[in-house]
Amino acid sequence: MPELPEVENVRRSLSELIVGKTVCGVHTNWEKILVGGLSTFTKTLDGTTVTAVDRRGKYLLLRFDNQVTLVSHLRMEGKYQLAPTADEPPARFLHVWLDFTDGSQLRYLDMRKFGRMQLCDTGAEMQVGGLKTMGPEPTVETFDATDFYHTLQKHKKPRVLQSS
User: Fold this and answer.
1) In angstroms, rounded to a whole number, what is the distance separating the alpha carbons of residues 50 and 69?
2) Residue 140 has what DSSP assignment?
3) Which residue from 116, 141, 104, 145 is spatially nearest to 16, judged by alpha carbons?
4) N or C: which end of the chain has fewer CB within 10 A?
5) pLDDT in the model for residue 129
6) Adjacent-strand bridge partners of 80
7) Residue 23 and residue 20: Cα distance in Å, rounded?
8) What is the H or E stretch that residue 16 is in?
9) Separation CA 104–CA 18 (nearest Å)
10) CA separation for the pair 111, 81 (Å, rounded)
């Protein structure tokens, strides 16, 4: 499973590569990856423009100008690639690809097919699967020592006595 810094690197790279691009097609050869199915993704994303790529934990959040967010979890081996043209031969394990109006293509590859993508209204991401039970981000900006202390006080684990 990708570690948090790796997912942040993916987010930064994707942000530089796809923000501002407009979707003109959604395709898959393994529909189970798309929660809600291909027709929902096509209807919702066709003609929309990527406005941002965010991250929450190990989830990538692709934001679109129609106030929809694509929530993507890479799971163990998922990865994204940007092909400069749709004519570029598909890589092995390619399962989902988005065509952009500039001719480029965002490709999602996943050897084990564990990854999932789900659409939701922007602002409602925290109601999606694993996001709704996720704690705060492990960053200096979001860490609160007092909250952390109080959370630890709620856990009642038996104390183990050391014998001498």
Assistant:
1) 9
2) T
3) 104
4) C
5) 81
6) 108
7) 10
8) helix 4-18
9) 9
10) 14
Residue 98 pLDDT level (bands cut at 50, 70, 90): very high
Q: 119-142: per-residue pLDDT in tens?
A: 999 999 988 888 888 777 667 777
E-assigned strand segments in the chain: 23-28, 34-35, 50-56, 59-64, 68-73, 79-83, 94-100, 105-109, 116-121
pLDDT reported for residue 91: 87
Q: What is the dihedral of CA 8, 12, 17, 19, to 10 degrees?
A: 100
The position carrying tokens 């129609």 is: 66
Q: Please determine, looking at this structure, whether the domain spanning 4-131 carries the CATH number 3.20.190.10.
A: yes
- Which DSSP string corresponds to 99-135? EETTS-EEEEE-SS---EEEEEETT-GGGSGGGGG--
- For the whole model, what pTM was predicted? 0.83
- H-helix or E-strand containing 43? helix 38-45
Tell me the per-residue pLDDT of 56-95, one tens digit each, with 9 for 90 and over.
Answer: 988 999 999 999 999 999 888 889 999 999 899 988 999 9
Domains of the chain: which residue ranges?
4-131
Distance CA 58, CA 24 (A): 27
